[in-house]
């Protein structure tokens, strides 16, 4: 009895969402003990997608701006760490501050035009910005090695300690997932985060209440870009090879699917969305007639989720399910009363 | 050199313009950027290729008409399945936009699965025949065919939107959707038709572009889709005239830059122009200023 009280107290203090998050992280942390290295690789990329998805969710769910070019920041992070290694032989630890710096600059550059516009221009500017950065990655041969890409990027080195094994790398990424989750949640509940949510709900009212829209939008873009850049840097080191084709608009759209599946502003949802959308296409690899078509999952999921949440038939089905559910509960209650 | 580049630019520009009209038409009615347009461009050229090599062997015009019919149906189905349910609930255009991105992903991946990622030769009209001008510049017949065909289509489109019942319906939809509802117009059907028309235009430009390149690969849609989108914004999104002009301007500048400058710069130029335009006049060349009501 006493234990139960303690448990409920913990749940109350942490919140159900956070509890689910930490339990999921613990479950994910023991995954490497049971699976082979191929499956572990999938889990690694799922964990990277979690950070990437959370960074976009910060922008979409809290900032209220849909970025259709988030792959650009991911690419900037990946190319920063890869180029630092390629040209100067820097390792992950020493390049990490630069990853943060450059992705922040990339975010800032986008944020300044972005914060002056609304509506359709958001789509246009983010898309074309990502496209321009992609062209730079492709054509600035001296730095990015152009179409060839950068090969044989070494493993992550933390202060001289090399993460040579897949499970070590995986645990390191999970630690970063937890750190970014905690930081993002702290940000969301801070004054800045609350101001941002007010802006998302009604920007004019928020401005009238004295919230500076411009600086807030710039800040949220920069922070979101930093997290995306970190995810990109991890990608570069885990996969060991990058080229410009990775960071196209398809990646941005996949990231949007991850966020949309999990729910806007719901960071635990993003964790599950990333897991689901990374593992499902890999599972479809085994189905022979779907092998070539496995990547349509991302598109199907986008349409289905939009259907479920924002369409009239979806709302009708939901209402029907709810009424059936209520009836079932009601019936049970009646039967109990009869007894 | 000059005339050669100009002709290249006009031919490419008509491809851009036809796709751009598809974006603009739907934007003018729903204020929705229909991302699936680029995928329809790709899908219909893939369908053209597959039909040409299997069902209607060697008959370009029959294949072309079949492809057009396919693209029209595809556009209508996209609207019916992915856009209409979301549009009717009225939660906001962002959700319909995300849904259209889903459609785009599905179509692209299906094409990739069916087609592979190799480059295939594409059937073309009057292959290898050139007109030689007075100063020795060669102009391919296919360029002239594309230019004439697209001018024809633009004329037909103008006539269609000005004079037919459906066209007038589309124009009134773009003026005021709610009033059209109240007047008892078949709004859903008209929007479906606008998607079908946009898709057919994308199909024409897709087939024309592949004929011009004489080859087809899976990356065709993405490149042209983005450029056409840039052209739409340049001319003012939602304004048909603007997107045609934007398409020609972008294509001609691109061809001249790659001819006299270098080809790397030509890849940047369209997005560079776009960004500059957004700073100077965000509503585009022909755009009118909007006022926001609180």
How does this structure look, described?
The complex is a heterodimer of chains A (339) and B (294). Chain A is mainly α and 339 residues long. Chain A folds into two domains: 21-294, ABC transporter involved in vitamin B12 uptake, BtuC; 296-339. Chain A has 15 helices and two strands. Chain A has a two-stranded antiparallel sheet with strand order 1-2. Chain A is globular and about 70 Å long. The mean pLDDT of chain A is 86. With 294 residues, chain B is mainly alpha-helical. Chain B has one domain (2-217). Chain B has eleven helices and four strands; from the N terminus they run H-H-H-H-E-E-E-H-H-H-H-E-H-H-H. In chain B, strand 2 (130-132) and strand 3 form a beta hairpin. Classes of the chains: A mainly alpha (339), B mainly alpha (294). Chains A and B meet through helix 6, helix 12, helix 14 and helix 15 of A and helix 3, helix 4, helix 9 and helix 11 of B.
Question: Layout of helices and strands, plus pairs?
Answer:
The complex is a heterodimer of chains A (339) and B (294).
Chain A: H1 2-14, H2 16-29, H3 37-62, H4 71-88, H5 92-114, H6 120-139, H7 141-144, E1 157-158, E2 161-162, H8 166-189, H9 191-201, H10 203-208, H11 213-239, H12 249-262, H13 267-284, H14 296-310, H15 312-338
Antiparallel strand pairs in A: 1-2
Chain B: H1 2-30, H2 36-53, H3 60-89, H4 93-115, E1 120-121, E2 130-132, E3 138-140, H5 141-163, H6 165-175, H7 177-182, H8 187-213, E4 215-216, H9 220-235, H10 240-260, H11 263-280
Helix pairs in contact in B: 1-5, 1-8, 1-9, 1-10, 2-3, 2-4, 2-8, 2-9, 3-4, 3-8, 5-6, 5-8, 6-8, 9-10, 9-11, 10-11
The string of secondary-structure elements of chain B, in order, is HHHHEEEHHHHEHHH
Overall tally of domains of chain A = 2
Which structural class do the helices and strands of chain B define? Answer: mainly alpha
List the total number of helices of chain B.
Answer: 11
Q: What is the percentage of strand-forming residues of chain A?
A: under 5%
Task: Give average pLDDT of chain A, whole number.
Answer: 86
Number of helices of chain A: 15
**Can you give the helix content of chain B as a percent range?**
over 70%
Strand content of chain B: under 5%
* CATH class placement of the largest domain in chain A: Mainly Alpha
Intertermini distance of chain B: 54 Å
The assembly state of the depicted protein chains is heterodimer
**What's the shape of chain A?**
globular
Domain tally of chain B:
1
Count of extended strands of chain B: 4
Helix and strand content put the structural class of chain A at: mainly alpha
Largest sheet of chain A: 2 strands, antiparallel
Radius of gyration of chain A: 22 Å
Low-confidence stretches of chain B: none
Order of helices and strands of chain A: HHHHHHHEEHHHHHHHH
């Amino acid at each position: 009895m006493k234990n139960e009280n303690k448990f409920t107290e913990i749940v109350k203090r942490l919140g159900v969402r956070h509890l689910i998050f930490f339990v999921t992280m613990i479950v994910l942390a023991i995954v490497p003990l049971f699976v082979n290295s191929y499956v572990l690789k999938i889990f690694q990329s799922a964990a990277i997608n979690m950070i990437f998805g959370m960074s976009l969710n910060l922008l979409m769910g809290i900032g209220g701006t849909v970025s259709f070019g988030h792959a650009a920041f991911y690419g900037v992070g990946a190319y920063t760490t890869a180029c630092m290694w390629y040209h100067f032989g820097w390792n992950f630890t020493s390049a990490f501050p630069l990853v943060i710096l450059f992705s922040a600059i990339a975010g800032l550059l986008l944020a300044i035009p972005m914060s002056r516009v609304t509506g359709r221009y958001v789509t246009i500017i983010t898309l074309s910005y990502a496209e321009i950065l992609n062209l730079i990655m492709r054509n600035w041969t001296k730095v990015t090695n152009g179409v060839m890409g950068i090969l044989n990027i070494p493993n992550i080195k933390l202060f001289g300690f090399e993460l040579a094994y897949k499970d070590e790398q995986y645990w390191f990424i999970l630690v970063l997932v937890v750190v970014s989750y905690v930081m993002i949640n702290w940000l969301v509940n801070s004054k800045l985060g609350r101001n941002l949510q007010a802006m998302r709900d009604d920007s004019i009212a928020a401005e009238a209440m004295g919230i500076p829209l411009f600086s807030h939008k710039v800040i949220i873009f920069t922070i979101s870009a930093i997290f995306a850049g970190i995810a990109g840097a991890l990608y570069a080191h885990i996969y060991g090879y990058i080229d410009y084709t990775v960071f196209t608009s398809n990646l941005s759209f996949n990231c949007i699917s991850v966020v949309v599946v999990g729910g806007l502003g719901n960071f635990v949802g993003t964790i599950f969305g990333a897991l689901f959308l990374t593992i499902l296409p890999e599972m479809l690899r085994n189905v022979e007639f779907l092998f070539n078509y496995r990547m349509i999952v991302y598109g199907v999921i986008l349409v289905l989720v939009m259907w479920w949440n924002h369409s009239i038939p979806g709302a009708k089905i939901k209402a029907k399910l709810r009424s059936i559910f209520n009836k079932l509960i009601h019936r049970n209650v009646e039967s109990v009363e009869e007894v | 050199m000059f005339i050669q580049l100009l002709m290249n630019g006009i031919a490419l520009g008509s491809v851009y313009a036809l796709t751009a009209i598809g974006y603009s038409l739907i934007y003018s009615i729903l204020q929705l950027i229909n991302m699936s347009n680029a995928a329809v461009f790709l899908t219909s050229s893939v369908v053209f290729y597959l039909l040409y090599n299997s069902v209607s062997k060697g008959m370009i015009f029959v294949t072309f008409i079949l492809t057009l019919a396919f693209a029209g149906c595809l556009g209508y189905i996209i609207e019916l399945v992915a856009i209409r349910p979301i549009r009717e609930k009225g939660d906001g255009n962002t959700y319909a936009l995300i849904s259209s991105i889903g459609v785009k992903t599905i179509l692209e991946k299906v094409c990739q699965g069916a087609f592979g990622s190799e480059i295939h030769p594409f059937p073309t009209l009057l292959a290898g025949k050139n007109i030689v001008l007075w100063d020795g510049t060669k102009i391919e017949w296919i360029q002239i065919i594309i230019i004439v065909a697209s001018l024809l289509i633009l004329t037909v489109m103008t006539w269609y939107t000005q004079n037919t019942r459906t066209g007038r319906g589309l124009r009134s939809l773009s003026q005021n959707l709610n009033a059209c509802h109240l007047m008892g117009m078949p709004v859903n059907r008209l929007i479906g038709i606008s998607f079908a028309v946009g898709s057919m235009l994308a199909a024409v430009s897709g087939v024309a572009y592949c004929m011009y390149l004489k080859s087809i690969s899976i990356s065709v849609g993405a490149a042209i889709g983005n450029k056409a989108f840039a052209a739409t914004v340049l001319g003012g999104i939602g304004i048909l005239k603007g997107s045609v002009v934007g398409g020609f301007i972008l294509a001609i500048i691109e061809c001249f830059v790659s001819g006299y400058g270098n080809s790397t710069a030509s890849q940047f130029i369209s997005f560079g122009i776009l960004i500059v335009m957004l700073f100077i006049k965000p509503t585009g060349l022909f755009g009118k200023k909007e006022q926001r009501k609180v």
